[in-house]
Amino acid sequence: MTNINSLSIVVPVFNEEDNLPLLFGEINKALSSLDKEWQVIFVDDGSSDNSLQVIRSMGEEHPEVKYIAFAENCGQSAAFKAGFDAATTDVVITIDADLQNDPADIPALLREYERGYTMVIGWRQKRQDTLQKKVASKIGNAIRNKLSRETVKDTGCSLKVMDTKMVQKIPMLTGMHRFLPTLMKMQGATVSEVPVNHRHRQHGESKYGILDRAKATFLDLLAIRWMQSRHFRYSIKDRNL
Ligand code: UDP
Ligand code: MG
Question: Could you tell me which InterPro entries the record lists for this protein (predicted)?
Fold first, then answer.
């Protein structure tokens, strides 16, 4: 059993102005009844809409709203990394800004974590995306599992709870947010999967094309496979420092 006292929700934001107040409202509703210290770290990834202004004005009203704003668009992995590095809480929770993930699932993920895991990931049993995207994602997930010898049901779900110190150690290269379970396992993480709700995107647009994502992910997958083959762990029997 682990006790989580404090948590940071890390939200990568690229042109999501209409989603942000709704998202914060839902997070607030899901977390305010829990007896835990919490904050939301919005990482504005060089948005060209009013996302940053919206975040700043939410911050004036709510002390739980923290933010980091990039000077230019650096990608979702960089946004996650900046949020992970800024967190000083027991765990970090990742969630997309677009409301496709449901913050109401967070308490159940935390309960699962507290059973003794160091990573809990959401599994979108009923995905609400276009058929094209669902098929691409299923194929992508299967290839990823095969090549990285994993059995993760849904690596692409952004809703995850992770031990802060472990996630801060993983190398964050562009695209690496798609391999967080494998990278966390390399740090010794124990992983559990929990079914979560999934919703259609109501505001703003998806930032990725299916083909571009497939190509980039495949190359990253080869890098992950190589990292797995070279990865080592050691256990210490004695030390004087
Ligand atoms: N995002 C980001 N930087 C980017 C692309 C996306 O911070 O360069 C954010 C985006 O605002 C969203 C999350 O990453 O919060 C996932 O993006 P999206 O919903 O477009 O991806 P999809 O759900 O289509 O996989
Ligand atoms: Mg999305």
Answer: Glyco_trans_2-like (IPR001173), Glycosyltransferase_2 (IPR050256), Nucleotide-diphossugar_trans (IPR029044)
